[in-house]
Backbone:
Protein backbone atom coordinates (compact mmCIF):
# COMPACT_ATOMS: atom_id res chain seq x y z
CA UNK A 1 0.00 0.00 0.00
CA UNK A 2 1.30 3.44 -0.88
CA UNK A 3 2.03 5.89 1.90
CA UNK A 4 1.17 9.53 2.23
CA UNK A 5 3.60 12.01 3.77
CA UNK A 6 1.23 12.30 6.75
CA UNK A 7 1.30 8.51 7.32
CA UNK A 8 5.09 8.52 7.10
CA UNK A 9 5.32 11.34 9.64
CA UNK A 10 3.09 9.37 12.02
CA UNK A 11 5.27 6.28 11.66
CA UNK A 12 8.55 8.06 12.25
CA UNK A 13 7.27 10.36 15.00
CA UNK A 14 8.29 13.88 15.82
CA UNK A 15 11.95 12.92 16.35
CA UNK A 16 12.08 10.05 13.85
CA UNK A 17 14.87 9.76 11.31
CA UNK A 18 12.59 10.53 8.36
CA UNK A 19 12.43 8.77 5.01
CA UNK A 20 14.90 11.03 3.18
CA UNK A 21 17.56 10.68 5.87
CA UNK A 22 17.07 6.93 6.01
CA UNK A 23 17.45 6.57 2.22
CA UNK A 24 20.49 8.86 2.33
CA UNK A 25 22.06 6.68 5.04
CA UNK A 26 21.50 3.57 2.87
CA UNK A 27 23.16 5.22 -0.15
CA UNK A 28 26.13 6.34 2.00
CA UNK A 29 26.47 2.89 3.53
CA UNK A 30 26.40 1.30 0.06
CA UNK A 31 29.20 3.59 -1.10
CA UNK A 32 31.29 3.06 2.04
CA UNK A 33 31.03 -0.70 2.54
CA UNK A 34 33.35 -3.30 1.06
CA UNK A 35 31.06 -6.16 2.05
CA UNK A 36 29.21 -7.71 -0.89
CA UNK A 37 26.57 -9.10 1.45
CA UNK A 38 25.90 -5.62 2.86
CA UNK A 39 25.69 -4.16 -0.66
CA UNK A 40 23.15 -6.83 -1.63
CA UNK A 41 21.02 -6.06 1.43
CA UNK A 42 21.15 -2.29 0.81
CA UNK A 43 20.23 -2.56 -2.89
CA UNK A 44 17.39 -4.96 -1.98
CA UNK A 45 16.12 -2.41 0.59
CA UNK A 46 16.31 0.44 -1.92
CA UNK A 47 14.50 -1.72 -4.50
CA UNK A 48 11.68 -2.23 -1.98
CA UNK A 49 11.40 1.54 -1.48
CA UNK A 50 11.08 1.87 -5.27
CA UNK A 51 7.53 0.46 -5.03
CA UNK A 52 6.17 3.62 -3.42
CA UNK A 53 5.88 6.79 -5.54
CA UNK A 54 6.18 8.95 -2.43
CA UNK A 55 9.90 8.07 -2.42
CA UNK A 56 10.58 9.15 -6.02
CA UNK A 57 11.44 12.74 -5.14
CA UNK A 58 14.03 11.42 -2.68
CA UNK A 59 15.29 8.99 -5.34
CA UNK A 60 15.92 11.94 -7.69
CA UNK A 61 17.78 14.02 -5.09
CA UNK A 62 19.89 11.04 -3.92
CA UNK A 63 20.58 9.70 -7.44
CA UNK A 64 19.27 6.26 -6.45
CA UNK A 65 18.19 5.41 -9.99
CA UNK A 66 21.74 6.12 -11.18
CA UNK A 67 22.99 3.88 -8.38
CA UNK A 68 20.71 1.10 -9.67
CA UNK A 69 21.96 1.65 -13.23
CA UNK A 70 25.62 1.58 -12.15
CA UNK A 71 24.97 -1.63 -10.21
CA UNK A 72 23.73 -3.39 -13.38
CA UNK A 73 27.38 -3.62 -14.45
CA UNK A 74 28.52 -5.37 -11.26
CA UNK A 75 29.74 -8.98 -11.57
CA UNK A 76 27.62 -10.07 -8.57
CA UNK A 77 24.39 -11.63 -9.93
CA UNK A 78 22.38 -10.90 -6.76
CA UNK A 79 23.31 -7.21 -6.88
CA UNK A 80 22.20 -7.06 -10.51
CA UNK A 81 18.95 -8.89 -9.69
CA UNK A 82 18.05 -6.41 -6.94
CA UNK A 83 19.12 -3.37 -9.00
CA UNK A 84 17.03 -4.34 -12.04
CA UNK A 85 14.16 -5.10 -9.65
CA UNK A 86 14.47 -1.58 -8.25
CA UNK A 87 14.49 -0.06 -11.74
CA UNK A 88 11.48 -2.16 -12.71
CA UNK A 89 9.60 -1.00 -9.60
CA UNK A 90 10.00 2.72 -10.29
CA UNK A 91 10.49 3.19 -14.04
CA UNK A 92 6.83 3.81 -14.82
CA UNK A 93 7.22 7.21 -13.17
CA UNK A 94 7.57 9.71 -16.06
CA UNK A 95 10.57 11.59 -14.64
CA UNK A 96 12.43 8.41 -13.71
CA UNK A 97 11.67 6.85 -17.10
CA UNK A 98 13.12 9.92 -18.86
CA UNK A 99 16.15 9.88 -16.59
CA UNK A 100 16.85 6.23 -17.42
CA UNK A 101 16.43 6.78 -21.16
CA UNK A 102 18.59 9.92 -21.17
CA UNK A 103 21.38 8.22 -19.16
CA UNK A 104 21.69 5.39 -21.71
CA UNK A 105 19.85 3.12 -19.30
CA UNK A 106 18.11 1.14 -22.04
CA UNK A 107 21.47 -0.25 -23.14
CA UNK A 108 22.41 -1.14 -19.54
CA UNK A 109 19.02 -2.75 -18.91
CA UNK A 110 19.11 -4.72 -22.18
CA UNK A 111 22.52 -6.06 -21.20
CA UNK A 112 20.80 -7.97 -18.39
CA UNK A 113 18.94 -10.16 -20.90
CA UNK A 114 22.00 -12.43 -20.98
CA UNK A 115 21.94 -13.00 -17.22
CA UNK A 116 21.81 -16.63 -16.03
CA UNK A 117 19.45 -15.47 -13.25
CA UNK A 118 15.79 -16.05 -14.20
CA UNK A 119 14.43 -13.27 -11.95
CA UNK A 120 16.88 -10.79 -13.48
CA UNK A 121 15.78 -11.69 -17.01
CA UNK A 122 12.08 -11.46 -16.12
CA UNK A 123 12.56 -8.04 -14.51
CA UNK A 124 14.62 -6.94 -17.51
CA UNK A 125 11.92 -7.83 -20.05
CA UNK A 126 9.27 -6.10 -17.93
CA UNK A 127 11.49 -3.03 -17.53
CA UNK A 128 12.09 -2.81 -21.28
CA UNK A 129 8.33 -2.86 -21.85
CA UNK A 130 7.83 -0.14 -19.20
CA UNK A 131 10.58 2.01 -20.75
CA UNK A 132 9.08 1.93 -24.24
CA UNK A 133 8.24 5.42 -25.48
CA UNK A 134 8.23 6.85 -29.02
CA UNK A 135 11.77 8.07 -28.20
CA UNK A 136 13.11 4.71 -26.94
CA UNK A 137 11.13 2.18 -28.99
CA UNK A 138 13.68 1.87 -31.80
CA UNK A 139 16.43 0.96 -29.33
CA UNK A 140 14.19 -1.38 -27.30
CA UNK A 141 13.02 -3.25 -30.40
CA UNK A 142 16.44 -3.44 -32.04
CA UNK A 143 17.06 -6.68 -33.95
CA UNK A 144 19.29 -8.36 -31.31
CA UNK A 145 16.65 -7.78 -28.61
CA UNK A 146 13.78 -9.04 -30.82
CA UNK A 147 15.82 -12.13 -31.75
CA UNK A 148 16.54 -12.73 -28.06
CA UNK A 149 12.81 -12.45 -27.26
CA UNK A 150 12.04 -14.96 -30.01
CA UNK A 151 14.40 -17.44 -28.34
CA UNK A 152 12.85 -16.74 -24.92
CA UNK A 153 9.36 -17.24 -26.38
CA UNK A 154 10.31 -20.86 -27.14
CA UNK A 155 11.73 -21.53 -23.65
CA UNK A 156 10.38 -24.36 -21.49
CA UNK A 157 10.06 -21.87 -18.63
CA UNK A 158 6.44 -20.66 -18.93
CA UNK A 159 6.99 -17.35 -17.10
CA UNK A 160 9.83 -16.45 -19.45
CA UNK A 161 8.08 -17.76 -22.55
CA UNK A 162 4.82 -15.92 -21.82
CA UNK A 163 6.50 -12.61 -21.01
CA UNK A 164 8.62 -12.77 -24.18
CA UNK A 165 5.48 -13.50 -26.23
CA UNK A 166 3.78 -10.41 -24.77
CA UNK A 167 6.83 -8.32 -25.70
CA UNK A 168 6.84 -9.67 -29.27
CA UNK A 169 3.08 -9.23 -29.72
CA UNK A 170 2.72 -5.78 -28.15
CA UNK A 171 5.98 -4.04 -29.06
CA UNK A 172 7.31 -5.53 -32.30
CA UNK A 173 6.20 -5.10 -35.90
CA UNK A 174 5.74 -7.98 -38.35
CA UNK A 175 8.83 -6.84 -40.29
CA UNK A 176 10.94 -6.86 -37.09
CA UNK A 177 9.74 -10.39 -36.30
CA UNK A 178 10.49 -11.55 -39.86
CA UNK A 179 14.01 -10.08 -39.72
CA UNK A 180 14.68 -11.78 -36.36
CA UNK A 181 13.37 -15.12 -37.66
CA UNK A 182 15.63 -14.79 -40.69
CA UNK A 183 18.65 -14.33 -38.43
CA UNK A 184 17.63 -17.41 -36.42
CA UNK A 185 17.36 -19.46 -39.62
CA UNK A 186 20.78 -18.28 -40.77
CA UNK A 187 22.28 -19.14 -37.39
CA UNK A 188 20.70 -22.60 -37.30
CA UNK A 189 21.98 -23.14 -40.87
CA UNK A 190 25.50 -22.17 -39.77
CA UNK A 191 25.42 -24.48 -36.76
CA UNK A 192 24.03 -27.29 -38.92
CA UNK A 193 26.81 -26.92 -41.49
CA UNK A 194 29.50 -26.83 -38.77
CA UNK A 195 28.07 -30.09 -37.34
CA UNK A 196 28.23 -31.71 -40.78
CA UNK A 197 31.92 -30.89 -41.27
Residues:
Amino acid sequence: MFSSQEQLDKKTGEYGIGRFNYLQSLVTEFQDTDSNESKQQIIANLANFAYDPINYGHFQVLNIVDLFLDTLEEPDEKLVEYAIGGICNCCLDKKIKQQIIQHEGVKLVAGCLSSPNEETVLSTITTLMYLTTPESKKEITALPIVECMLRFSEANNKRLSNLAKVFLKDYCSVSQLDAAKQIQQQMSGLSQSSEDT
In short: The chain has 13 helices and no strands. The CA atoms of residues 65 and 177 lie 32 Å apart.
